[in-house]
Amino acid sequence: MKQRIGQVIWNHVQEHSALYLFIVVLFVMGIIFGTLTVQSLGYAQQHDLYTYFQQFLDEFARNNIVDPGYAFYQNFIHYLKYVGIIWVLGLSIIGLPVILIMVFLKGVFVGFTVGFLVHQMGMKGFMFSFVSVIPQNMIVVPLILMMSVISISFSLKLIAHLFRQNRTYQKLSLAKYIGAMAIAAAVLLIVALFQTYLSPLLMRGLL
Fold first, then answer.
1. Is 0.85 surpassed by the pTM of this model?
2. Nearest Cα residue to 177 out of 153, 142, 160
3. Could you tell me the residue ranges of all domains in the chain?
Protein backbone atom coordinates (compact mmCIF):
# COMPACT_ATOMS: atom_id res chain seq x y z
CA MET A 1 0.00 0.00 0.00
CA LYS A 2 2.79 2.41 0.95
CA GLN A 3 4.70 1.52 -2.21
CA ARG A 4 1.58 2.19 -4.30
CA ILE A 5 1.02 5.59 -2.70
CA GLY A 6 4.69 6.44 -3.15
CA GLN A 7 4.52 5.43 -6.80
CA VAL A 8 1.44 7.58 -7.38
CA ILE A 9 3.16 10.60 -5.81
CA TRP A 10 6.34 9.97 -7.80
CA ASN A 11 4.40 9.68 -11.06
CA HIS A 12 2.58 12.91 -10.23
CA VAL A 13 5.85 14.76 -9.56
CA GLN A 14 7.39 13.47 -12.78
CA GLU A 15 4.35 14.43 -14.81
CA HIS A 16 4.43 17.98 -13.47
CA SER A 17 8.19 18.33 -12.93
CA ALA A 18 8.45 21.67 -14.79
CA LEU A 19 5.61 23.16 -12.76
CA TYR A 20 7.12 21.87 -9.51
CA LEU A 21 10.47 23.43 -10.41
CA PHE A 22 8.80 26.78 -11.03
CA ILE A 23 6.81 26.64 -7.76
CA VAL A 24 9.87 25.62 -5.71
CA VAL A 25 11.96 28.44 -7.22
CA LEU A 26 9.15 30.90 -6.45
CA PHE A 27 8.99 29.67 -2.84
CA VAL A 28 12.77 29.94 -2.42
CA MET A 29 12.64 33.49 -3.80
CA GLY A 30 10.04 34.23 -1.10
CA ILE A 31 12.37 32.87 1.58
CA ILE A 32 15.23 35.03 0.30
CA PHE A 33 12.97 38.09 0.20
CA GLY A 34 11.72 37.43 3.73
CA THR A 35 15.28 37.08 5.03
CA LEU A 36 16.35 40.30 3.34
CA THR A 37 13.32 42.07 4.81
CA VAL A 38 14.67 41.38 8.30
CA GLN A 39 17.90 43.15 7.39
CA SER A 40 16.00 46.13 5.98
CA LEU A 41 14.02 46.75 9.17
CA GLY A 42 15.03 49.75 11.23
CA TYR A 43 16.35 49.42 14.75
CA ALA A 44 13.07 50.62 16.28
CA GLN A 45 11.04 48.08 14.29
CA GLN A 46 13.37 45.23 15.20
CA HIS A 47 13.29 46.30 18.85
CA ASP A 48 9.48 46.42 18.92
CA LEU A 49 9.20 42.98 17.32
CA TYR A 50 11.76 41.48 19.66
CA THR A 51 10.04 43.05 22.70
CA TYR A 52 6.74 41.53 21.60
CA PHE A 53 8.44 38.19 21.10
CA GLN A 54 10.03 38.34 24.56
CA GLN A 55 6.64 39.08 26.10
CA PHE A 56 5.28 36.01 24.36
CA LEU A 57 8.15 33.90 25.72
CA ASP A 58 7.56 35.22 29.24
CA GLU A 59 3.87 34.37 29.06
CA PHE A 60 4.72 31.00 27.55
CA ALA A 61 7.21 30.22 30.35
CA ARG A 62 4.53 31.00 32.95
CA ASN A 63 2.02 28.81 31.10
CA ASN A 64 -0.17 31.85 30.48
CA ILE A 65 -1.18 30.62 27.07
CA VAL A 66 -4.48 29.82 25.42
CA ASP A 67 -6.33 26.58 26.05
CA PRO A 68 -4.70 23.75 24.04
CA GLY A 69 -8.05 22.76 22.55
CA TYR A 70 -8.63 26.30 21.30
CA ALA A 71 -5.02 26.52 20.06
CA PHE A 72 -5.47 23.27 18.14
CA TYR A 73 -8.64 24.60 16.54
CA GLN A 74 -6.94 27.84 15.53
CA ASN A 75 -3.89 26.07 14.12
CA PHE A 76 -5.97 23.63 12.12
CA ILE A 77 -8.31 26.31 10.76
CA HIS A 78 -5.36 28.53 9.83
CA TYR A 79 -3.67 25.81 7.77
CA LEU A 80 -6.96 24.58 6.33
CA LYS A 81 -7.93 28.08 5.19
CA TYR A 82 -4.58 28.63 3.48
CA VAL A 83 -4.64 25.33 1.61
CA GLY A 84 -8.40 25.60 1.05
CA ILE A 85 -8.07 28.99 -0.63
CA ILE A 86 -5.43 27.56 -2.98
CA TRP A 87 -7.78 24.65 -3.71
CA VAL A 88 -10.75 26.95 -4.43
CA LEU A 89 -8.62 29.19 -6.64
CA GLY A 90 -7.83 26.14 -8.76
CA LEU A 91 -11.53 25.95 -9.62
CA SER A 92 -11.42 29.44 -11.11
CA ILE A 93 -9.40 30.35 -14.16
CA ILE A 94 -8.57 33.82 -12.83
CA GLY A 95 -7.15 32.40 -9.59
CA LEU A 96 -3.82 31.23 -11.03
CA PRO A 97 -1.85 34.43 -10.27
CA VAL A 98 -3.20 34.46 -6.70
CA ILE A 99 -1.94 30.90 -6.12
CA LEU A 100 1.55 31.99 -7.17
CA ILE A 101 1.36 35.00 -4.85
CA MET A 102 0.33 32.77 -1.94
CA VAL A 103 3.28 30.43 -2.55
CA PHE A 104 5.64 33.41 -2.61
CA LEU A 105 4.12 34.86 0.58
CA LYS A 106 4.49 31.54 2.39
CA GLY A 107 8.19 31.64 1.55
CA VAL A 108 8.38 35.24 2.78
CA PHE A 109 6.78 34.27 6.09
CA VAL A 110 9.12 31.33 6.69
CA GLY A 111 12.20 33.31 5.65
CA PHE A 112 11.26 36.31 7.78
CA THR A 113 10.42 34.25 10.87
CA VAL A 114 13.58 32.16 10.84
CA GLY A 115 15.72 35.11 9.75
CA PHE A 116 14.37 37.31 12.54
CA LEU A 117 14.96 34.72 15.24
CA VAL A 118 18.51 34.04 14.05
CA HIS A 119 19.27 37.75 13.66
CA GLN A 120 18.07 38.59 17.17
CA MET A 121 19.12 35.51 19.13
CA GLY A 122 21.93 33.93 17.12
CA MET A 123 22.35 30.19 17.55
CA LYS A 124 19.65 30.06 20.21
CA GLY A 125 17.28 31.68 17.73
CA PHE A 126 18.18 29.05 15.15
CA MET A 127 17.52 26.27 17.65
CA PHE A 128 14.25 27.91 18.67
CA SER A 129 13.11 28.11 15.05
CA PHE A 130 14.26 24.51 14.58
CA VAL A 131 11.75 23.30 17.18
CA SER A 132 8.96 25.87 16.75
CA VAL A 133 8.87 26.77 13.05
CA ILE A 134 10.69 24.19 10.96
CA PRO A 135 9.08 20.87 12.11
CA GLN A 136 5.50 21.62 11.03
CA ASN A 137 6.66 23.50 7.95
CA MET A 138 8.59 20.43 6.81
CA ILE A 139 5.13 18.95 6.17
CA VAL A 140 3.03 22.06 5.56
CA VAL A 141 5.34 23.61 2.95
CA PRO A 142 5.58 20.50 0.69
CA LEU A 143 1.82 20.08 1.08
CA ILE A 144 1.20 23.70 0.03
CA LEU A 145 3.56 23.32 -2.93
CA MET A 146 1.88 20.07 -4.00
CA MET A 147 -1.63 21.52 -3.64
CA SER A 148 -0.51 24.58 -5.62
CA VAL A 149 0.72 22.37 -8.46
CA ILE A 150 -2.46 20.26 -8.34
CA SER A 151 -4.63 23.40 -8.35
CA ILE A 152 -2.75 25.05 -11.20
CA SER A 153 -2.79 21.81 -13.20
CA PHE A 154 -6.52 21.36 -12.62
CA SER A 155 -7.21 24.96 -13.64
CA LEU A 156 -5.19 24.56 -16.85
CA LYS A 157 -7.04 21.34 -17.69
CA LEU A 158 -10.32 23.09 -16.94
CA ILE A 159 -9.45 25.84 -19.45
CA ALA A 160 -8.56 23.22 -22.08
CA HIS A 161 -11.77 21.25 -21.58
CA LEU A 162 -13.93 24.37 -21.62
CA PHE A 163 -12.57 25.19 -25.06
CA ARG A 164 -12.89 21.59 -26.21
CA GLN A 165 -16.39 21.27 -24.77
CA ASN A 166 -15.38 17.87 -23.35
CA ARG A 167 -16.93 17.51 -19.86
CA THR A 168 -16.38 13.77 -19.18
CA TYR A 169 -12.72 13.94 -18.23
CA GLN A 170 -13.37 17.14 -16.30
CA LYS A 171 -15.79 15.34 -13.94
CA LEU A 172 -13.27 12.57 -13.30
CA SER A 173 -10.58 15.16 -12.53
CA LEU A 174 -12.94 16.95 -10.16
CA ALA A 175 -13.42 13.77 -8.13
CA LYS A 176 -9.65 13.38 -7.79
CA TYR A 177 -9.35 17.08 -7.02
CA ILE A 178 -11.81 16.80 -4.13
CA GLY A 179 -9.97 13.70 -2.91
CA ALA A 180 -6.66 15.59 -2.88
CA MET A 181 -8.17 18.26 -0.64
CA ALA A 182 -9.60 15.62 1.72
CA ILE A 183 -6.16 14.01 2.07
CA ALA A 184 -4.59 17.44 2.62
CA ALA A 185 -7.09 18.18 5.39
CA ALA A 186 -6.23 14.90 7.13
CA VAL A 187 -2.51 15.70 6.98
CA LEU A 188 -3.11 19.21 8.32
CA LEU A 189 -5.07 17.74 11.22
CA ILE A 190 -1.98 15.75 12.24
CA VAL A 191 0.24 18.82 11.82
CA ALA A 192 -2.07 20.89 14.04
CA LEU A 193 -1.96 18.19 16.72
CA PHE A 194 1.85 18.19 16.63
CA GLN A 195 2.09 21.98 16.76
CA THR A 196 -0.37 22.22 19.64
CA TYR A 197 0.78 19.42 21.92
CA LEU A 198 4.37 18.46 21.01
CA SER A 199 5.96 21.65 19.72
CA PRO A 200 5.46 23.52 23.05
CA LEU A 201 7.32 20.75 24.87
CA LEU A 202 10.29 21.17 22.54
CA MET A 203 10.16 24.96 22.94
CA ARG A 204 10.22 24.74 26.73
CA GLY A 205 13.42 22.73 26.51
CA LEU A 206 15.17 25.84 25.16
CA LEU A 207 13.80 28.31 27.72
1. yes
2. 153
3. 2-204
